[in-house]
Amino acid sequence: MKYFYYSGCSLEGTAIEYNLSTKAVMQALGIELIELEDWTCCGASAAETTSDLLSVVLPARNLALAAKMGMDCDFLIPCSACYLNLRKVDERLNRDEGLRDQINEVLQEEELSYQGGIRSRHLLDVIATDIGTDMIKAKVNHKLSGLRIAPYYGCQALRPYGGYDDPEEPHCMEPLIEALGAEVYPWSMGAKCCGAGLMTTKKEIAVELTGELLKAAKGADCIATVCPMCQMNLDSYQKQVSRAKGEDLRISVLYLPQLMGIAFGLGEEALKLNLNMAYTGSLQAKLRH
Amino acid sequence: MSEEKREIAEGHTAEDLMASIRENIRACMQCGTCTGSCGSAFAMDLTPRQMWRMIQLGLVDEILASRTFSLCSSCYYCTLRCPRGLPLTETIHALKQLAVAKGLAEKKGARFYQTFLETVRRYGRVREMELMARYFLIMKSPVLPLRFTPLGMRLMMKGKVSPEMPKFFGSGKLDAIFRKVKELEARS
Ligand code: SF4
Ligand code: SF4
Q1: pLDDT digit string (tens) for A79-116?
Q2: What is the 3-state secondary structure (H, E, C) of A177-229?
Q3: Is residue B2 domain-resident?
Q4: Cβ–Cβ of B112/A200 closer than 8 Å?
Q5: Contacts of A44 in chain B (CB under 8 A)
Q6: pLDDT per residue over B54-83, tens digit each?
Q7: What's the CATH number of domain A133-287, 3.90.330.10, 3.40.50.11810, 3.40.30.10, 3.40.50.720?
Q8: Considering the entire predicted model, what is its pTM?
Q9: Does A287 contact B at CB distance below 8 Å?
Q10: Would you call B185 and A277 a contact, using CB atoms and an 8 Å cutoff?
Q11: Assembly ipTM
């Protein structure tokens, strides 16, 4: 198996541990990731509030770079916001000829072109659909026995496009968690919004939304995430959220590939667990014995 | 582009945006599913359903004066559940664009996005800490950084971001693309 790999800006900064643990796990599974040297930002949520054309051109530039390599591979994208932006390009290009022409007129400035056809896929989709539980079980040598893990999917990995899981009541992470030897913590918050970028622009609201998630996760050993924005909202503001909610809401929050890596016995260094903001002593103790 | 020409281009954009916004929600039947699905609705002065009705009635200024669209986190729940299948989240993005085009966008949010895109134009990618530092410089606000400082400091301590101060912007990696996008938008 081979994929183009789009890390995106967050995975070079605040979410570097998501990037490195994803690569480590893919390597362990024998999956090849092809990185595009010249990739650029997908526009995040900034471009779409400013210019519609720019918001499709920025992700399209990356697809054009991949198209130029002439290989028949899907794009694998760990960040939900990047995934949505890249995926949107094909969704829109195919129903709007005028937009296709405009995108290409702009890309021509860099002697690039993109006519569609490269599938943009979220990391979770690739893990759940292409890799699957058999391949994962074959690699597990440190079962996560006794751990209760709350699967958190967030929004843009599932909506509006989805296709690989139910966009309102997703379940695809559950068999993966079980394949690692852990238990699925039952909750109904997996697809609820954490507030995303509102943590920067409208903090009170994001604190409220994140608070509801952390409250519902009480009783789990860990929340599993698949997006740097979700991870940041859930792991970096726990003190403030606890204060606002008047209860101790601290809990471990790890990226799904980090949990896979632990079960594969890859070691803390490869998985960069030292960089996590919320990796509690009690979880560390449970993992050690 | 001359001042006059730019005004015309932007006026045109605002009109086009409003036309497509109205077209998007023309078929809204006021069932309220969107409001019931929205995690931010508790803090909105107009509910999403009310906002769509006001768009149908052409009450643009009232909508732009409300805080509703700036509280959208793009979770796509309303879009997913709307029984009429209307592109609601996209419409909210268009409202955000409209506010920017009319110079009405809330300063803080708009400046943040502007700063973000400037960083993208210049470097092609975003270095998060630098983005924050630059944003504070532009906002010239002594209070704002405090909201980010605990996180910023913790991230720095973890070695995730570099504490260097940003250089001033000059020519950038994606200049050609940004220029061309502007040109095409002015033409339409
Ligand atoms: S869910 Fe759709 S049809 Fe119902 S009120 Fe909202 S926009 Fe209108
Ligand atoms: S996309 Fe925006 S308006 Fe729609 S439900 Fe989510 S937060 Fe509310």
Answers
A1: 999 999 999 999 999 999 999 999 999 999 999 999 99
A2: HHHCCCEECCCCCCCCCCCCCHHHHCHHHHHHHHHHHHHHCECECEEEECCHH
A3: no
A4: yes
A5: 116, 126
A6: 999 999 899 999 989 999 999 999 999 999
A7: 3.40.50.11810
A8: 0.90
A9: no
A10: no
A11: 0.91
